[in-house]
């Protein structure tokens, strides 16, 4: 949605307060620009009050001989002189009538700007003047500073020259800064008594922002013609005294500098970065580098130095992977930003051993008592990210097993894990060692320690839910077929009902026999069961049959006595092997449920949470453990403690943001949009164990029947499409090639219209996956579905 034109310099004018002279100074800027450039556009998106007092009318009256170069527009005009949100309510009359949404409002501004830009390619200026102060409401009631943010226009702040104006101006600046706005100039009236400009000039100069103080306008005269003449002389003086022209030259310089910076970034990045998961020899040049100028909601603003002449150099690009699975509420969410600022201002970072602070304690109690740890976990260990959280989980589990089995010395070193092939738990060495040697996520020190079952998987093929069995299981279940059809997706995930089906005994026998064979063969001692519940993400978006995972947990726990319990009031201690749930990817509603525990019907002994935990704003991970795991480290001997930690353990910023994220996510889980999506999937909202998706079920059915598609699957925010590829693997480019067209914006209509955006997405070999935020607008999801369907249709 952001706009940046090479020939059209645009600035948004915010006021530190009401009645600070925005329109007077905007008129001076318009007249100054008209004296220097071919065209000047002035936009007042919202105007309230009598037409004769309207700001755009003032501009028209005082553009003088330059009127042929000045073009004014007001998009929403209300004649009642009240705040815009009240004016809109009064105009609507009946409360049932819908008031203009923020998206419609911003789109109307975008459309107007693009129309102005298309009038020519000669140099031109535009000024978009807001109403009142930075937090004055717009039509929907959202404050201006938040409503206008998707446009991300460089900003001119009109300071307050009155008593209290220093505080008002700095507060307005900080409100803009917290939302990412770039303030390029501060203008205000000169007042010889309060002399606010004397204080504000060095304050903003230190922050790289020029301050310009100009004489205040003359008093309003009772005679209209004399008042007009007096005002005209004032504007002419501002131009002739060179008060405004230096401001314009500075704005032009900053505009050119911004364009030059964006243009140079790809080359400089190629020379500076070592990107993750990228083979640099496959990068063809600067065109392969995506330059993200800003991000808002679900969209990036991406710079294109070689776009059509006269078009915006920024295009909207949907963040199709929810920024590597971290986004919960979209980019630049103001509530999360303020939470981070609140904790930063209160704490910065503080060390954590034997220390407590409110954000960490509140988060721990929330996770234990009202979150994924409810009913089974007793402790929370904080770390930096999902991989380090899993390192902590593995240390916990291996120690608990060693203590229970009274292992010492070399025996403690010869421990491995039980898991599923295709799992991935992070890129740190310990987390890598808990995964099979797949040849991709590996390094020279990677030493896979354990055994990994080939799991049965769930997908939708040709419109039908299918459970695909690996060869070893297929032979036992149905020698003539490796798939098991199911009546509905809901029935696949109804684990309690499926526990009485014949497939349970097939799974149980297969698991038991395999474990017995491993015991007879000797080698590593299996010391923990490590699972990514329901979906193994980085391994290829593998949707595992939940029944297999449930039976696997039951079998493992039935193969050994529990350690002695120390407290009759605590949940039952772990049995057989400690069980770790890696919910870094799948947890906290990524799959439409807070945790996979209710669906599987079994609790782990340790679980790990990250990514959505902080809404994608800052890194943080939480490892939850049962009391019996904690007791394995409980001793008077310091050496027996969990001697593990990170410099930013329980980072106050992360904890505060996590608390705010969880509050907002819980609210979203009860939203009308979620209820509507659940209704499309014909599930009862809030019922444990049900599965649904923000993706439309009819779309899923249609895609599953397309020739180029082998299978498709969707849960919650996640969509995975496996394309047909005879050489399917992580290094395959088939999915990327097949869907390449959605990386480009549709042509033929305005980019501000619904669906006119490109898509940034990533693939895992022959699997293309897409992910929304938890609050992505349904119309955005529908537009993305259309793009995907069109791309697949072209390949058929």
List keywords for this structure.
Rossmann fold; 796 residues; Aspartate Aminotransferase, domain 1; 27 strands; dethiobiotin synthase activity; transferase; elongated; 18% strand; alpha/beta; PyrdxlP-dep_Trfase_major; Aspartate Aminotransferase, domain 2
Structure write-up:
The protein has 796 residues and is of the alpha/beta class. It folds into three domains: 8-257, P-loop containing nucleotide triphosphate hydrolases (Rossmann fold, 3-Layer(aba) Sandwich), CATH 3.40.50.300; 334-668, 3-Layer(aba) Sandwich (Aspartate Aminotransferase, domain 2), CATH 3.40.640; 672-795, Aspartate Aminotransferase, domain 1 (Alpha-Beta Complex), CATH 3.90.1150. A seven-stranded parallel beta sheet has the order 3-2-4-1-5-6-7, sandwiched between helices. It has a seven-stranded mixed beta sheet with strand order 11-22-21-20-17-12-13, sandwiched between helices. Helix 11 (334-346) packs antiparallel against helix 23 and helix 19 crosses helix 20. It starts with 7 loop residues before the first strand and ends with a helix. GO terms for molecular function: adenosylmethionine-8-amino-7-oxononanoate transaminase activity; dethiobiotin synthase activity; pyridoxal phosphate binding. It holds the Pfam family Aminotran_3.
CATH architecture of the largest domain: 3-Layer(aba) Sandwich
Main sheet? 7 strands, parallel
- Round the mean pLDDT to the nearest integer and report it: 91
In total, how many domains does the architecture comprise? 3
User: Proportion of β residues?
Assistant: 15-25%
Task: Tell me the overall shape.
Answer: elongated
Number of strands: 27
Regions with pLDDT < 50 over 5+ consecutive residues?
A: 747-754
Q: Reading side by side through the largest sheet, how are the strands ordered?
A: 3-2-4-1-5-6-7
Distance between the termini: 32 Å
């Amino acid at each position: 949605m952001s706009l940046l034109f090479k020939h059209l310099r645009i600035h948004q004018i915010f006021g530190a307060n009401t009645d600070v002279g925005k329109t007077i100074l905007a008129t001076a800027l318009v007249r100054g620009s008209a004296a220097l450039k071919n065209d000047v556009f002035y936009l007042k998106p919202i105007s309230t009050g009598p037409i004769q007092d309207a700001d755009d009318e003032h501009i028209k009256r005082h553009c003088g001989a330059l009127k042929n170069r000045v073009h004014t527009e007001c998009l929403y005009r209300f004649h009642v002189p009240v705040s815009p949100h009240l004016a809109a309510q009064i105009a609507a009359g009946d409360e049932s009538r819908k008031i203009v949404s923020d998206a419609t409002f911003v789109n109307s501004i975008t459309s107007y700007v693009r129309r102005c830009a298309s009038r020519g390619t000669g140099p031109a200026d535009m000024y978009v003047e807001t109403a009142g102060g930075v937090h004055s409401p717009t039509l929907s009631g959202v404050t201006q500073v938040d409503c206008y943010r998707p446009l991300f226009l460089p900003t001119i702040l009109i300071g307050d020259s009155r008593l209290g104006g220093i505080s008002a101006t700095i507060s307005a600046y900080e409100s803009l800064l917290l939302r990412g706005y770039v303030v390029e100039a501060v203008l205000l009236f000169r007042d010889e008594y309060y002399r606010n400009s004397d204080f504000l000039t060095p304050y903003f100069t230190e922050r790289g922002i020029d301050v310009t103080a100009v004489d205040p306008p003359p008093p309003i005269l009772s005679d209209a013609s004399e008042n007009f003449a007096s005002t005209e002389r004032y504007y002419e003086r501002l131009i002739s005294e060179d008060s405004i022209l230096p401001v314009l030259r500075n704005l032009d310089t900053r505009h050119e500098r911004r364009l030059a910076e964006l243009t140079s970034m790809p080359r400089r990045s190629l020379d500076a970065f070592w990107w993750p998961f990228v083979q640099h020899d496959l990068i063809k040049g600067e065109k392969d580098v995506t330059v993200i100028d800003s991000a808002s909601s679900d969209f990036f603003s991406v710079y294109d130095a070689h776009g059509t002449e006269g078009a915006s150099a920024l295009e909207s690009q949907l963040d199709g992977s929810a920024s590597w699975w971290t986004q919960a509420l979209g980019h630049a969410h103001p509530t999360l930003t303020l939470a981070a600022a609140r904790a930063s201002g209160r704490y910065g970072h503080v060390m954590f051993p034997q220390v407590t602070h409110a954000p960490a304690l509140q988060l721990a109690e929330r996770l234990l008592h009202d979150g994924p740890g409810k009913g089974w976990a007793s402790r929370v260990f904080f770390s930096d990210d999902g991989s380090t959280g899993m390192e902590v989980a593995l240390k916990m589990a291996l120690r608990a097993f060693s203590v229970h089995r009274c292992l010492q010395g070399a025996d403690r070193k010869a421990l491995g894990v039980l898991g599923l092939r295709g799992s991935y738990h992070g890129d740190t060495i310990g987390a890598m060692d808990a995964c099979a040697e797949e040849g991709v996520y590996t390094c020279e020190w990677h030493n896979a320690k354990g055994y990994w079952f080939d799991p049965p998987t769930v997908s939708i093929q040709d419109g039908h839910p299918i459970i695909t069995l690996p060869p070893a299981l297929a032979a036992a279940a149905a020698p003539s077929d490796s798939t098991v059809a199911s009546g509905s997706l809901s029935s696949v995930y109804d684990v309690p009902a499926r526990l009485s089906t014949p497939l349970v005994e097939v799974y149980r026998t297969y698991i038991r026999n395999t474990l017995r064979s491993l015991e007879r063969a000797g080698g590593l001692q299996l010391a923990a069961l490590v699972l990514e519940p329901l979906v193994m993400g980085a391994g290829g978006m593998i949707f595992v049959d939940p029944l297999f995972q449930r039976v696997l947990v039951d079998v493992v726990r039935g193969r050994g006595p529990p350690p002695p319990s120390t407290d009759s009031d605590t949940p039952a201690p772990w049995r057989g092997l400690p069980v770790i749930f890696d919910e870094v990817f799948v947890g906290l509603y990524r799959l439409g449920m807070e945790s996979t525990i209710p669906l599987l019907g079994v609790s782990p002994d340790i679980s790990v949470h990250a990514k959505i935990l902080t809404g994608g704003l800052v890194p943080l991970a939480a490892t939850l453990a049962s009391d019996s795991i904690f007791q394995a480290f409980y001793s008077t001997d310091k050496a027996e403690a969990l001697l593990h930690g990170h410099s930013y353990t329980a980072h106050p910023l992360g904890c505060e943001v996590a608390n705010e994220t969880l509050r907002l996510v819980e609210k979203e889980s009860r939203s009308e949009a979620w209820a509507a999506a659940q209704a499309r999937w014909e599930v009862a909202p809030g019922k444990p164990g049900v599965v649904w998706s923000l993706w439309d079920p009819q779309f899923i059915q249609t895609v599953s029947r397309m020739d180029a598609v082998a299978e498709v699957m969707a849960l919650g925010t996640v969509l995975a499409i496996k394309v047909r590829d005879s050489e399917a693997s992580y290094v395959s480019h088939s999915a990327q090639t097949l869907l390449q067209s959605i990386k480009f914006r549709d042509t033929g209509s305005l980019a501000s219209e619904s669906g006119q955006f490109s898509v940034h997405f990533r693939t895992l070999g022959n699997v293309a996956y897409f992910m929304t935020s938890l609050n992505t607008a349904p119309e955005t999801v529908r537009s993305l579905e259309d793009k995907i369907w069109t791309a697949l249709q072209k390949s058929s």
